[in-house]
């Protein structure tokens, strides 16, 4: 049995093309999501579709991007389906994990996704190292300048730290951490 899944991310998009393609592909049931981004893997229609699937069945989508935007998320989902004995088919990209050729194509895609993730990670680490070597701050932007810390330090001598933190719109913990780093360390 084939179970279809269709998604449109905005209310003004039409789902008719996907539904017609899934019906032509032989889907007996089609689950839908309206107004949900592909970036989120938690969607009501997708959740119902995944719960309904049994071993030997196949999840069918019109295009891969209807299931999700991130290749790593797609790979995880399809691997989970495979572990449950459930096939996957994308009509537009002709990916069909119920055949040995389709599984090969999908595994190649998964390997490319893993390779891409490792390249991104390496480039990120190299960029952070270069920035640190050049004396630039790496990470989230600082909420307080060095001048703010000096003023907060002076005010903390005459008023409770909670009041000083509230005045600068930060937590007391942030102040303590910055005091240690900027003034004491």
How would you describe this protein?
The model has no long low-confidence stretch (mean pLDDT 88). Helix content is 54%, strand content 14%. Strand 1 (2-8), helix 1 (16-24) and strand 2 form a beta-alpha-beta unit. The protein has a 5-stranded mixed β-sheet with strand order 2-1-3-4-5, sandwiched between helices. The longest helix is centred in the middle third of the chain and has 34 residues, at 100-133. It folds into 2 domains: 2-111, Rossmann fold (3-Layer(aba) Sandwich); 146-184. The chain is α/β, with parallel strands linked by helices. The chain has 8 helices and 5 strands.
For the structure shown, list the relevant keywords.
185 residues, Rossmann fold, 2 domains, five-stranded mixed β-sheet, 14% strand, elongated
- Oligomer designation: single chain
The CATH class assignment of the largest domain is: Alpha Beta
* Helix and strand element order: EHEHEHHEEHHHH
Low-confidence regions: none
So how many helices? 8
Based on secondary structure, the structural category is: alpha/beta
Give me the CATH architecture of the largest domain, please: 3-Layer(aba) Sandwich
Distance between the termini: 66 Å
Gyration radius, rounded: 26 Å
**What is the helix content?**
40-55%
CATH superfamily of the largest domain: Resolvase, N-terminal catalytic domain
Task: Give a quick account of the main beta sheet: strands, pairing sense, barrel closure.
Answer: 5 strands, mixed
**How much β-strand is present in the residues?**
5-15%
**Strand order, largest beta sheet:** 2-1-3-4-5
- Total beta strands: 5
CATH topology of the largest domain: Rossmann fold
- Taken together, the total number of domains comes to 2
């Amino acid at each position: 049995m084939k179970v279809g899944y269709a998604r449109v991310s905005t209310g003004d998009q039409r789902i008719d093309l996907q539904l017609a393609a899934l019906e032509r592909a032989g889907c007996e049931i089609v689950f839908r999501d309206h107004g949900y981004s592909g970036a989120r893997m938690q969607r009501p229609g997708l959740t119902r579709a995944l719960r309904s699937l049994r071993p030997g069945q196949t999840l069918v989508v019109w295009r891969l991007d209807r299931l999700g935007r991130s290749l790593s998320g797609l790979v995880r989902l399809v691997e989970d389906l495979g572990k449950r004995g459930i096939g996957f088919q994308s009509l537009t990209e002709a990916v069909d994990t119920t055949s040995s050729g389709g599984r090969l194509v999908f595994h190649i895609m998964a390997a490319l996704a893993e390779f891409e993730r490792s390249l991104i990670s390496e480039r990120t680490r190299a960029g952070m190292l270069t920035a640190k070597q050049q004396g630039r701050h790496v990470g989230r932007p600082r909420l307080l300048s060095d001048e703010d810390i000096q003023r907060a330090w002076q005010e903390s001598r005459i008023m409770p730290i909670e009041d000083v933190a509230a005045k600068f719109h930060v937590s007391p913990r942030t102040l303590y951490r910055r005091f240690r780093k900027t003034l004491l360390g």
